[in-house]
Amino acid sequence: MEGKIAQALSAYDLHLEGMVPLKKGYRVSTDKGLFRLKEFPGSLQEFRFVNQLLIHLNTSDFRDVRLPVLTRENKNHVLIGDSIFYLSPWVNGTNIDVENLNELKDLTGQLARLHIAMESYVPLRDLSDVRIDNDDLTILSEGLNELYEFAEKDDEFAKNYLPLLEAELESAEQVFANLHGEGDLAYRHGDFHAGNVVRTNANRLVILDFDEASVGNPLWDLVEILRLYGNWDVEWLIAMLSSYHQFRPLNEGDLGYLLALLSFPWDLWEIGRAYYLQGRMQERKLASETDLFAKRKLCLKVLSNISPEQLAGEGEPLRIPFEEIESPFVETESPSEEFEEPVQKKKKEKLVWRFPS
Fold first, then answer.
1. How far, in Å, CA of 284 to CA of 207, rounded?
2. For 193-227, how does the pLDDT look when each residue is reduced to its tens digit (9 = 90+)?
3. What domains appear along the chain, each with residue ranges and CATH number?
């Protein structure tokens, strides 16, 4: 791989001074400044699709993207065997603080502006059928079937995993039963998260890494932000949705689609796959899911009743039914003394699963 990296960099008119590996690609120091070198995860035709999209965004009113640097031969990529490498300018600045609601509102607002700018993108004729992902609900349906298989397990792991899973599947099934179609297809980033957004010194939010951009429902980008950073806090979720809605209004169909995607038990699916397919135990993550159960149910209940007018601050005030959602875990009474073992330390009260009514 190092040989390919050196060969890729040699195609550019710059002098290498240093290189630091990143999670994706390399941070490259040169006599002409800092850059990021990446290997594109797709075909040359897909790279052209993504590059044309970036050109469109850069020439539109959006502009908060960075185009690949041209090589000595005036190309936007370097082809080495089957590998495609490209170099882009390094963006100096700070990442979004995901513990700050105002910054998350900025993030969702910028995502909405990106989606609006992408709507007017018209790919070249030979790229019109590239990266079309219109099987989103099929993927979710297959995921549900896999979860059903996990629900049939009978082992030690299942004792803690299954009660959560069964309750989550019930809500997901109800939403999917009333959902039809893939929603409105447009263009989406495909890997939108705080790590791919940089706030510059000029207070611009620059969006990076369009390698997974595709045709599909753009609300998948929004769902990822809500799942990753909303912490299932209903007030944060409403604030983030309202920020998106301010720039790209959501209709009733959009809200139904969001509800379906958020109702899917993504984290439990990942925990089950890690254990049953890869043999990895994720005890901490499973414990976190238990703690978040009631908050998640509250968010889904509010989202199932909210209207576009309420997101815009119009119509009837939004009521958040905090008192209607209970945690599925309740503390039991301590056992009577005659059944307790003669131990010196006081026993911790036991937690017992109770299905929501």
1. 32
2. 999 999 999 999 999 999 999 998 899 999 999 99
3. 2-44+63-90 (3.30.200.20), 101-329 (3.90.1200.10)
